[in-house]
């Protein structure tokens, strides 16, 4: 259905939000009140969607997230099926809080563990949860001893922008391979915390200058909205793209192609869990009608 409507024939990665439930209530989380909702993929539904995406769109990788994927009781089964049966590259995006036992169990089937951090020490813990900073570092170190590649993600806010470079250096010293920086979008919990938004966009230019001059060994990937003038306009090929990087499925089955539309109920497509098929549900506010651009990433 996606191909029929948009002309897209290939989607490289499925971002699969297994559930809304989380053991954190981060100040900037785009899920907002949905963190309290019970919606989740049943094991057979998760397997069916991963299989459908591989067979119909050539999907070669899956990123498992939530909520918090490590509180999903079938995580091990999903990871093993994705790796062993579907031959997918498997990434997990987690808060890294007390995940040691389950990580040891699934490590042989995980290609990348990406842990979310929002600064150094108390800065991170205030945004996320007390004790979460050290727990995240412990998870990263354990993953490396288990042979799992590691990365981190950070949402840049007014409270932590000065700690991006110190965090990058800390992660580099730990042997973490990549830090991915996101721009804060005022949806979910972030809508109730406007103080987290950066109003002086020149601060982004200063941040990028500091990162470039630091000559870091860790790979730093930056959302191009983290610039004084925002992300550049990207012109799609005539007739639309034939291939996109990712599609995100939320626990209800809503499918979103643009990161800028995630959390806004701007989806034009829906995965019908019972029928195991994708439906087109156009609206006046969906990402196709509004031509919502995707996030552009670049290396520092």
Automatic annotation (TrEMBL):
Which Gene3D superfamilies does the record match to this protein? Aldolase class I
Q: Does the keyword Iron-sulfur apply?
A: yes
Q: In terms of domain of life, where is this protein from?
A: Bacteria
- This protein's UniProt keywords: Iron, Iron-sulfur, Metal-binding, S-adenosyl-L-methionine
What the entry lists under CDD domains is as follows: Radical_SAM
Q: Which residues form a coiled coil?
A: none
Ranges of residues in domain Radical SAM core: 6-223
A molecular function annotated in GO for this UniProt entry is:
iron-sulfur cluster binding
Q: In its UniProt entry, what is this protein called? A: Radical SAM protein
Origin species, per record, is: Streptomyces viridochromogenes
